[in-house]
Amino acid sequence: xxxxxxxxxxxxxGAGLVDLAVNxxxxxxxxWLAEPLRASLDDLAAYPDPTAATxxxxxxxxxxxxxxxxxxxxxxxxxxxxxxxxxxxxPVVVHPQFTEPEAALTxxxxxxxxxxxxxxxxxxxxxxxxxxxxxLVFVGNPxxxxxxxxxxARIAALARPGRVLVVDEAFSDTTYRAGVPxxxxxxxxxxxxxxxxxxxxxxxxxxxxxxxxxxxxxPAALLPRLAxxxxxxxxxxxxxxxxxxxxxxxxxxxxxxxxxxxxxDRAHLVTRLRHVPKxxxxxxxxxxxxxxxxxxxxxVRLELRERGYAVRRGDTFPGLGADWLRIAVRxxxxxxxxxxxxxxxxxxxx
Length: 350
What we know:
Layout: E1 18-20, H1 31-40, H2 51-61, E2 68-71, H3 73-84, E3 91-95, H4 100-107, E4 113-116, E5 136-140, H5 152-156, E6 164-168, E7 196-201, H6 203-206, E8 214-217, H7 223-227, H8 237-246, H9 249-273, E9 280-281, E10 289-293, H10 297-306, E11 309-313, E12 324-328, H11 332-348
Parallel strand pairs: 1-11, 3-4, 3-5, 5-6, 6-7
Antiparallel strand pairs: 2-8, 7-8, 9-10, 10-12, 11-12
């Protein structure tokens, strides 16, 4: 069966629908971000200069500037990697996960092998499943769409000389563990692992999907090769300003507070979903969304649309199927209203 790897949550959203399909936080932009962005519009006559933003991102993660490459969103990073590493002999993508890595690899002419994690294992990563001769490996952490957060040690076990290991941490800033400082299980600060490339996005927590800003962290010897696959001036001046602002200590502290509140909202969503008849929550959710399996989910999704709710279909993710949906974490009032509607829909089905 052919899977539409180009389908994304924004396709599900429509006028008048409560958006539970897109994993972008929607909240008023803080002044420390909004004001520099507005001021940057006065500088658009000059070509973008990534120097300050690169230094700020490097400092945030305890890396050298030569280990940072700013991109027009994490999605551009997938394309850059796929184009720059065309010589890879055996690229592997660990699924279920965000579909853009495989789409970018396929569009660049790669023949992709899939490693499918299993529901009965909680969609947890087993490093032994990745072939030893894979020289380009993509894995998400936390993984979209399952929301599973893999132990950093398991992912680190995949790193080895001669292999580029790409870890998509686009949702790492949404994770939280009480008593643990920073982002649990992130490898963003690990410059010691051979071939490790970590992708990051500023889209999710700060609501910057339309600005297109992300970055990758990796070996200084590899990054010039990746940069050569980017267009000139790939990241706009406003996006660079946002990267600088969001890397500040104050922004990182605010991000941690948001992640803590998200964890409480996620726990509420999971509790409500686990009381819905015939529904199974995937794994142990750790991010801004939850994957669920229920019979006839493809039809339930359409019935939910008729009642005002947009959720993400699961059949476009390799390793899931038509009985899967992905649901974004929202405030408890929105969750309660949605859970009531979902329960009613299921009770009405034969």
